[in-house]
Amino acid sequence: MMKNLIAVLTVVFAIIVIWYGAAFMMNKQWTLDQAERAGTTVTTSEVFKDTMAQERPQLPAPHQVISEIWKTTVEKKITSKRSLIYHAGITLSSTSLGFLMGSLLGITLAISIVHSRAMDLSVMPWIIASQTIPILAVAPMIIVVLNAVGISGLVPKAMISMYLSFFPVAVGMVKGLRAPDTMQLDLMKTYRASAWQTLIKLRLPSSMPYLFTSLKIAMAASLVGAIIGELPTGAVAGLGARLLAGSYYGQTIQIWSALISAAVLAAVLVMLIGVLQNITLKRMGMLR
Amino acid sequence: MIWAIAAILFWVGAWALNVYLSRGKLTKRNKFLIPLLFGVTILVLWEGLVTGLNVSPIILPPPSAVAAKFASSIPILWQDFVQTFVKGALSGYIIGCGSAFILAILIDRSPFLQRGLLPVGNFVAALPVIGIAPILVMWFGFDWQSKAAVVVVMVFFPMLVNTVQGLTQSDHMQRDLMKTYSANYWQSLLKLRLPAAMPFIFNGLKISTTLALIGAIVAEFFGSPIKGMGFRITTEVGRLALDMVWAEIVVAALAGSAFYGIMALIEKIVTFWHPSQR
Amino acid sequence: MSENSVIHAEKLNLVFQTNDGSVHALKDIDLTINKGDFVSFIGPSGCGKTTFLRVIADLEQPTGGTITVNGMTPQQAREARAYGYVFQASGLYPWRTIAGNIKLPLEIMGYSKEEQDKRVEQVLELVELGSFGKKYPWQLSGGMQQRASIARALSFDADILLMDEPFGALDEIVRDHLNEQLLALWARTEKTIGFVTHSIPEAVYLSTKIVVMSPRPGRIADVIESPLPKERPLEIRDSKEFLEVAARVRDGLRAGHLDD
User: Fold this and answer.
1) CATH 3.30.1060.10 fits A84-283, yes or no
2) Which residue has the higher pLDDT, A244 or C246?
3) Mean pLDDT, to the nearest integer, of C210-225?
4) CA separation for the pair B218, B234 (Å, rounded)
5) If A227 and its partner were Cys, which of A1, A240, B21, C96 is the partner (CB 3.0–4.6 Å)?
């Protein structure tokens, strides 16, 4: 455990060092150009200092991003349009709605696939094929079309999240519901258990480990969906909008801070499911 | 209205046929026929409902209109395909998967690096990496190079994690066996651990096909020359020319499925021995 | 140490450090195995019989005492490819044919292509799998897979064969048949064989020397030189000598247990 932590911290430290190095290399040119234009010469240490503190650097240094995040979270009111928490909240709401709908759809599909051979044979190939389609490409269309029929705001974004998150859940749950072996199923048969009883007493409990694993993937996918869904709405609100606005105006620090917050949000959400997984599996005695 | 009713009747009939077919013996033909019938049903239902209920084409064009548009704009679609798929997605896929594979082999000899990189890689693989697109577009310009860069970043970590994991797949006994032959590191890597890792490596390669196409298309939302599938989709959506958007989606779907299918086929040839392929 | 001793252990000790404290897997093992011997190691699980075999093979390092294999340290012997090792499971690579699997050690040891093919054919005949070279492991029965893994261990010229419960996972009938074949093979090749088992009839039927081991700490309880002739039909198992040796093995095992 300790060994792992040290290894991870070393890698993270190396990444930060590389980041600083890259920031220096990539921002150097601008500083030199400025100096040349002004007709002054600069020493290396002056260049280094400047590359760490430019307003629109090619690559902002980590501390610049952190201070930007600090400024836009702690020092801004949550209701302010410039607060990252406000934007993250918007993204979070469509993420969660899409995640819920997607998971429910996935579980329902999985149950019907496990119970109906016709469903299995007709739908399963298409579910798999649907994932080879780069659905994010359709995101702008879904938003615009739903807008045209009068649905706007949360729901269109959640639809995209739903599409992205139903697949891992459906596939994982089909596997999970089929996890009980022949002997266990035969045992239920000897009790003359109905399909419903078999589902509740055997299939669903045995599918739990699969469910949580796929929920984690679904959550991550759902967040990506929400962020992409915010792009074509004209950059109004949400982390995706911050990304787009930042790229319009060349505000690299803003892009990076939105990116890091999205990463933190994803990590927290996935971890939350992990905690839920531990509690559930422990209670069911599946985890020692 | 008649159209809609006819479509629904067709749907009921086709579903009944599917139920009947799936009760019978599962021949190779049926395994192919049943999903095909289901797909056709969806198309008929879509066509019938859109025509029958007079749905406006700026909301949902019927499949026939999409097909017509597809046929009449093949040069544009081809140009977009080359720009986005061949130049952006494919080159990024090769660079990304290739470098991830090489890094996985390099860190294979260092358990310390593996312990450190694997959790970080898993973490990054779960992040909304696509968000890096605007930054890379800023660094590498509007043309395909920036799209390829986005694809590299997107496919790198899933591929790395899968390869590293795959290389640990050979069991204790098989490694002991190599030791009794006093095989050196490269012999046991080439003859035992790489072949044993193939199912995992292909898992990474297959996941990456979809990610590559998504990365290349979405990166175009942040800036592109006046060609490319992502560019076409955003501009045509703006003009409410949804038939063209759907035609691009068809191209994307065909390209995506074919890309995935080819990788799956190679997997089948390489890992014929694996229980899941027999 | 006699002229023709192949494996020689003196005061051999092995202590594993685990999270729950230390485990004394081998305690003061003294044993000499001569050239051409068929030695069985028998005992309940945890008695160190597999561990001892793994020490001979340099897959475990002893913590005390000395052991030589062909007059060398186990590591030198392993690097000189002095022995073939057969595991409990066949461990055949599913992506190689049976012939390909048998070629594996030959490729690693740098045999020429013609030599590889020649040897593969030879050992396949030896284990009576002549026509199965082109098959994949999963297309063969468990007994045939185990025979293939024995062929793999025989393919290079090691004069020691170490076998760790090679027939443990097979059913009685297949096992009897393979035991007979193994004896025939041993007679033909004159190899020195170390054989781990937990079946008394198997040990008595096969061996010239039976090492009875007992657990906690793993040690030798008894060493029995078999009075049975080299020629052994299956019926020998009903003979008086056979039953006497079996009884002595059983006593040795029981004595080990009484210490608990």
Assistant:
1) no
2) C246
3) 85
4) 10
5) A240
